[in-house]
Design goal:
This protein is an all-alpha fold. The chain is built from 18 helices and two strands. Helices cover 72% and strands 1% of the residues.
Length: 468
């Protein structure tokens, strides 16, 4: 297309309710229905597992406050990518986008879709786990459905997010009320000697945090869509405080309910905790928990898609990915090429993936880059105090989160080295090698230009400009 053609903008369609739903609706996904048994089995005791859940919530609240300041200083979409680009430079930013686009985001989508599929199929396979091929087929269908929705209409995608947010809140409230009723009736035996058999090694603590933090993933989603948020200087901090405080409280109460109804042994042996809880408390209505968990995962998947496509979109706009990924549909104003690309890579990750491995390597990679991002906030506070900051946090807050991020990255490696972590680390570092020929020296520009023109006409998309 001619460079003189008027460029498109993504519209500011996300208000405060949509913002809260995007954070909370993505966070409350598969994790709270899938991870409690892994947290408990890894850390060893009910009391320690509740401490892990509370600490995960506190860590996420502190990190999200830091991100709220970053989002009001650097008012562009893209989350960690754009913050690292502005503070640490293009090579580190490309390492992030390389691992994010090819692994972290698709792994998140694949992991959530797998848990959605398991809960959808659970009522039909009461006595045995559903066939793996069927689970992956159902997961693939859910990815394709939500990819289509997000490509067609931003407003409709946000309405879906709000609807599923309400549905999953109702499901968690049912679990909490059921647990409180059992507590009132005197079912407290599972909390006696609640810290007995706690595993205190670096590796079990690190892995328990990985599994717990998977359930909180999505806390930073709003920073990916800052340019589509109405009044970001006001709504970004407000949405963060409302959504994350609500989710942390709900998660603690839900875990108390699980431990009230099930013994630690029952909880650890369950493949679908919410369904086991439903069968014990709701009897013949236990299947409703399977439906609720599936709806919850579906809503979380929608939020992950909505934000994940924007990461590709922003990186392409900065010249770190092919130009076609920085374009939007000329009528629908959705970043459809970036969403389609995310869909394809997610389906590829889904083929070999299993849930627990995806969670561990996802968390390892994510917290590596969260630490670098928050180092950028410390740098801005020290070197550029004059920048306008509608929202501020004390400098000690990002420093504390950086220390925890270093622990989360190093603890599992130091205590129980596994070759897989070396592979993941090499994969991240390989981004720097790819950067030199393809981004710095721009190899193969002619081939990419022809492909871009073809896809631009085929997908009916055009270049965009920043919506600041």
């Amino acid at each position: 297309m001619d460079d003189k053609t008027e460029k498109l903008n993504l519209k500011r369609e996300v208000g405060l309710v949509g913002a809260v739903s995007l954070i909370g609706g993505t966070m409350i996904g598969s994790g709270i229905f899938m991870s409690p048994q892994t947290v408990l089995s890894t850390i060893g005791s009910p009391g320690a597992s509740l401490v892990v859940w509370a600490c995960c919530g506190l860590l996420v609240i502190m990190a999200s406050f830091c991100y709220a300041e970053l989002g009001t200083v650097i008012r562009e979409s893209g989350g960690e990518y754009i913050y690292i680009l502005k503070t640490s430079g293009p090579v580190v930013a490309f390492m992030l986008i390389f691992s994010s686009v090819l692994f972290v985001r698709p792994a998140g989508v694949a992991g959530i879709s797998l848990s959605f599929a398991q809960y959808v199929l659970a009522p039909f396979y009461a006595d045995c786990p559903p066939p793996l091929l069927l689970v992956k087929g159902m997961a693939a269908v859910s990815i394709l459905v939500l990819a289509t929705v997000n490509c067609l209409n931003v407003r409709f995608a946000m309405k879906i997010q709000v609807f599923f947010m309400v549905a999953k809140l109702l499901a968690l409230v049912v679990i909490i009320i059921g647990g409180l009723v059992m507590l009132i009736r005197g079912h407290t035996e599972n909390f006696e000697n609640s810290f007995e058999n706690t595993h205190l090694g670096l590796n079990p603590i690190g892995i328990a945090f990985y599994q717990g933090l998977w359930s909180y993933d999505g806390w930073n989603n709003l920073n990916y869509v800052t340019e589509e948020l109405k009044r970001p200087e006001v709504n970004l901090p407000r949405a963060v405080v409302i959504a994350i405080s609500l989710v942390t409280g709900l998660y603690l109460l839900v875990n108390v309910s699980y431990l009230t109804v099930m013994t630690p042994k029952e909880l650890m042996s369950s493949s679908a905790v919410a369904v086991t809880w439903g069968n014990k408390v709701l009897g013949s209505w236990g299947w409703t928990m399977s439906v609720a968990a599936a709806l919850s995962a579906f809503g979380s998947l929608n939020g992950t898609f909505f934000s994940g496509g924007r990461v590709c979109f922003v990186a392409a706009r900065e010249g770190h990915l092919p130009d076609i990924l920085a374009m939007a549909h000329v009528r629908r104003l959705t970043p459809s090429p970036a969403l389609i690309f995310t869909t394809v890579v997610s389906l590829l990750v889904l083929i070999p993936g299993d849930f627990q491995s995806i969670v561990n390597f996802f968390s390892f990679t994510a917290w590596f880059f969260y630490g670098i991002t928050l180092s950028g906030l410390v740098y801005l506070k020290i070197k550029k105090p004059e920048l306008p900051r509608p929202y501020k946090v004390p400098i000690i807050l990002p420093i504390l989160v950086i220390i925890v991020a270093i622990f989360l990255v190093l603890a599992p490696i130091l205590d129980n080295p596994q070759i897989e972590y070396l592979y993941v680390s090499l994969f991240i570092l390989s981004g720097a090698i790819v950067y030199v020929p393809f981004i710095h020296f721009k190899l193969c520009p002619g081939l990419l230009t022809k492909l871009t023109v073809f896809l631009q006409l085929f997908l009916e998309v055009a270049p965009t400009e920043k919506n600041l």
